[in-house]
DNA sequence: CTGAAAGCGCTTACAG
DNA sequence: CTGAAAGCGCTTACAG
């Protein structure tokens, strides 16, 4: 195979200098239109592609953004959220021929080390940050490194970093109002990790709406998004005296696992128990009955965040975005309580 | 923020040349042990990290491998296989601080364009190739580009590229033998895309074992791995006269969707219908009844492939690997047929 | 064992 | 509008 042509080869073939080639290729002024076209034609003919490393050395972009995921691999494998998010991110990057560098990390310390390495090596032009905590120690590092970043979380103050978020409080409120309208008065929520900011936001909103509507038992039980813990927690909740008539889960995976537990315990869904899932993936539709869900367009969410980050990288500034909130999609897993167990 | 130190800064601080710094950092001969340690200490103290672009410009590796995925985003989001594979790949890369660059592509032509770009830009040191076809046109391009690559597929001849594979024929044979032992004589398989090499291998093995064991109706119906088509195909198969007593699905997502269809049609699983899923993810365990599955360690599969690719990149050569075949894990979705519908 | 120099392939002031 | 030169931050022969 012939050696790949360099800009010097193009320059020689076109009878111009390397500088002219560079200007022509990058659409910069400094060459006449005729010369530009001739250079472009020759470059295309010779299959020239600029060496990315050489560009990067001159301070050009790496053409790549980074995403570090701090979840156990077994959760990533089965939870649709992240893969859908990644799909959406990819869609935005593809338009600009940007790449995505993925890294799975065990904890925040490791994630911070990854950011330091990426920054030092100029491996990425910016990062997307997910799963924010309150007082998240990653924020300070990102600022110290001056690494362009968009936070996928909110609302909140993340050291001034732009954020893409949706109103989880509104969504959980909609779900509880719906369940109350169906007659439910004891509702348990199986939440995500308490240290996550969006868990906290949902927990507070859940407590508030329940108090406002006079829900008698409104408890949030923490869990970790895995099917295993979804099963375990559900079994415990449904075995205790005065069990709830409705369950809200913070992700679809736990909701599906919870549905299986209810069925295994002979508790009819939705006759005796209503179930609402957060995040509406295929999982919610392939079980029986299909699950009522708080649905949102996760890929679009990723696309929006990636667009913001690309803008930030290109122009040095971008805006935060409040994306559309999840909305309730009623399916077979929710029903009025009075019809089966009149109080 | 202070400017990042360069090797020249380290050299100045240590009172040596840049060359000495390079030798010290890379464990090359050319500096005394004492000097090396002093340089290393100073580099660490100053937080020095070599600029990746500068290294790459000298022919060093990009420190990244590429994975192009040619599946619709909606499938990627919900099918556990790829995310599990990626988890495993990540695990292998993390040991060596290698990155993974992901790209979702719509078709083979786009995938080939991505390989050309990655190669030309030196963006990746090598690639992992999945979802092989017979006479796959990607192979020639990879060879033309001289891009280090490991094929995750087999057995087969992929232009001499090393391959990591498992014996799908043995696995499907095991499943059919088991179903036959339970008394099933009409078995339908809901397969993956026919153009995929592993679909072809499974289809042939399925036909062979069925003929050998005297299965009367042994049909493979093609599908596309999505839950939607899994439902549609299952509904059709179960609605036709002389419906099978056992179904084998080429992935877990379609199997779970098929189970839901059987339940919606009032067909008892496993009483009247046995179901076997290929790929054993959490999906198979969270449905009711849990699905008998052809189980394999997908993350390990990814890890092995990544290790091979890293070896190929580092040494210029590597070996193919026949990974362990999927094995049957019996669960609640399979039972003897005679107990319910004696022939 | 060590230092000075050239070069990787681009980009970008700087002269003409 | 164009050309020659310097420089990005490393690595690697090549002399001492």
Automatic annotation (TrEMBL), chains A, B:
<dbReference type="Pfam" id="PF13377">
    <property type="entry name" value="Peripla_BP_3"/>
</dbReference>
<keyword id="KW-0805">Transcription regulation</keyword>
<feature type="domain" description="HTH lacI-type">
    <location>
        <begin position="5"/>
        <end position="59"/>
    </location>
</feature>
<dbReference type="Pfam" id="PF00356">
    <property type="entry name" value="LacI"/>
</dbReference>
<keyword id="KW-0804">Transcription</keyword>
<keyword id="KW-0238">DNA-binding</keyword>
<dbReference type="InterPro" id="IPR000843">
    <property type="entry name" value="HTH_LacI"/>
</dbReference>
<dbReference type="InterPro" id="IPR010982">
    <property type="entry name" value="Lambda_DNA-bd_dom_sf"/>
</dbReference>
<dbReference type="InterPro" id="IPR028082">
    <property type="entry name" value="Peripla_BP_I"/>
</dbReference>
<protein>
    <submittedName>
        <fullName>LacI family DNA-binding transcriptional regulator</fullName>
    </submittedName>
</protein>
<dbReference type="InterPro" id="IPR046335">
    <property type="entry name" value="LacI/GalR-like_sensor"/>
</dbReference>
<dbReference type="GO" id="GO:0003677">
    <property type="term" value="F:DNA binding"/>
</dbReference>
């Amino acid at each position: 195979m012939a050696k790949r042509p360099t800009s010097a080869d193009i320059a020689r073939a076109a009878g111009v200098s390397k500088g002219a080639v560079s200007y022509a290729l990058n659409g910069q002024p400094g060459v006449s239109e005729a010369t530009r076209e001739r250079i472009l034609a020759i470059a295309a003919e010779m299959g020239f592609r600029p060496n990315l490393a050489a560009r990067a050395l001159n301070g050009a972009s790496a053409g790549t953004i980074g995403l570090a995921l701090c979840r156990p691999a077994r959760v990533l494998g089965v939870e649709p959220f992240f893969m859908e998010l990644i799909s959406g991110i990819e869609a935005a990057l593809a338009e600009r021929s940007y790449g995505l560098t993925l890294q799975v990390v065990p904890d925040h310390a490791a994630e911070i080390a990854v950011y330091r390495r990426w920054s030092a090596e100029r491996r990425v032009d910016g990062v997307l940050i997910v799963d924010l905590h309150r007082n998240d120690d990653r924020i300070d590092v990102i600022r110290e490194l001056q690494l362009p970043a968009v936070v996928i979380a909110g609302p909140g103050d993340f050291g001034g970093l732009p954020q893409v978020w949706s109103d989880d409080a509104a969504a959980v409120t909609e779900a509880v109002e719906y369940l109350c309208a169906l007659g439910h008065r004891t509702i348990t929520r199986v939440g995500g990790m308490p240290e996550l900011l969006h868990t906290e936001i949902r927990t507070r909103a859940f407590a508030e709406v329940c108090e406002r509507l006079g829900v008698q038992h409104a408890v949030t039980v923490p869990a970790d998004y895995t099917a295993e813990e979804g099963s375990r927690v559900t079994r415990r909740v449904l075995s205790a005296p005065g069990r709830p008539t409705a369950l809200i889960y913070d992700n679809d995976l736990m909701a599906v696992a919870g549905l299986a537990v209810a069925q295994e315990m002979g508790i009819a869904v939705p006759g005796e128990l209503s179930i609402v899932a957060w995040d509406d993936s295929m999982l919610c539709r392939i079980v029986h009955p299909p699950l009522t869900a708080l649905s949102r367009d996760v890929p679009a969410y990723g696309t929006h965040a990636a667009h913001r980050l690309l803008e930030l990288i290109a122009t040095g500034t971008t805006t935060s975005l409040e994306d559309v909130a999840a909305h309730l999609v009623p399916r077979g897993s929710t029903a009025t309580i009075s019809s089966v167990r009149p109080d």
